[in-house]
Amino acid sequence: MDDYIRIFKSIYDELQAIERPVNDHTKVFLLLNGLGPEYESFVTSMWNPPIPVYKDVIPLLQSHKKLKSLNQYEREIQHQSAFYAQSQTFYGKRGGRGRQYFSSQGSEFYPYNLGQQ
Question: Which pick of 18, 27, 41, 82 has the fewest CB atoms within 10 Å?
Fold first, then answer.
């Protein structure tokens, strides 16, 4: 994201330098439309009036990226914790053999049709 913003800014700085400035609304429009689908909710919220000016969109976008990263990190931690808890439940009390629900010791086995005669 930082590279995208840096490149975007450098393009418009170069246009300004050759006296071809782009108005603020157009910069916001192009910046937001260049974001990928993972930023769809952010872009949608930015289009709600009043549409922010370019200098305000950049910090909002960076904050959104940090929040997404934090949420992703928390989901990974929760997933790892759930996996650990599940593996402890499954392997914990039987020395790694898992739960044993069926035992045929001490009982006879009858095929389905033969056992009902």
Answer: 18
Q: Is the pTM of this model over 0.70?
A: no
Cα–Cα distance for residue pair 15/13, rounded to 1 Å:
5
CB-based burial label for 46 (10 Å; 0-12, 13-18, 19+): buried
90, 99 contact by CB (below 8 A): yes
pLDDT in tens, the chain (117 residues): 889 999 999 999 999 999 999 999 999 999 999 999 999 999 999 999 999 999 999 999 999 888 877 767 566 666 565 555 565 555 555 555 555 445 555 556 555 555 455
Alpha-helical segments (H) within the chain:
2-17, 24-33, 40-46, 54-91
Token pair listed for 82: 């759930």
| Beta-carbon-side half-sphere exposure of residue 115 (alpha carbons within 13 Å) | 6
